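Re: that chain you flagged

S.,

Sorry for the slow reply, it's been a week of failed gels. I finally had a moment to sit down with the sequence you sent. For the record, here it is as I used it:
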Amino acid sequence: MVFDKITFSARPASEVDSVAVRALSLLAANTGNKAPSSSFKSLADHKDLTKMLTQRLYQASCDADRQKMITAIKEMQVSEASVSDIISILVPAAARKLGQDWVNDTASFGAVTIGCARLQACVHHLERNFAERPLRDSAHQTNCLVVVPEGAQHTLGAVVLAAELRQAGPHAQLALDVSPEKMARLVNDEHYDIVMISAALGQDIGTLRALVKAARTKDAHSKVIIGGSLLTSEKNLRKTTLSDAVTSDWQTALKIGNSGLQSVDAKP
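Prediction finished late last night. Pasting the structure tokens below so you have them in one place:
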């Protein structure tokens, strides 16, 4: 996953509905780097299998029986889908189907929320039980902090982003419901090479600017990068937030952080 987004068309919305939109707004279209499975390089090369497994995962997320999710994960493993592919391709695709159900008014907010929570649990389960890459020398890992601002609801996307970063090699810590004060404490307690702030549609610019400022409280050398669906509506986001870069591609974010590039605006 990237800092990317799914954009849902607006229908008459209550406050609860608007929360549902934000909760689904950070999911990825870009699959990024993926570890190969034993028989083929990537699920991205097998569209029919990807479609079938996405449908299986989507159905499991909607099923009243929680065990169906575990069964679906096992089936994906038997089908030789790698952990990275499940996290990067199948979970976002299943979440998009949930979001489309909401847009089509065929699923309630509660059903979509439960489905997203189960997909999030799927990611946690995969990271805990199916680690594919060998342990690496932590002294040479890029240290990343993935931040969801205080009050934001798009936790699934951030969970997927952090998991993708870990699969690719960097160390990634996920921090939810982060205020500027909490951000200052986080960066004071530990050095981060890159701070990635997810910004969904409707996120307050002033809050983002305060988070960027707080992220630099201790270490001005850390790169602070903003990504997410807000990039589609705010064209001058780097300037208004004083961030180092804005990008919806976590690979680009890593390059910026690792190379020490000057402030740039990257393509969403």
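What I noticed first: The chain has a mean pLDDT of 78.

Talk soon,
D.
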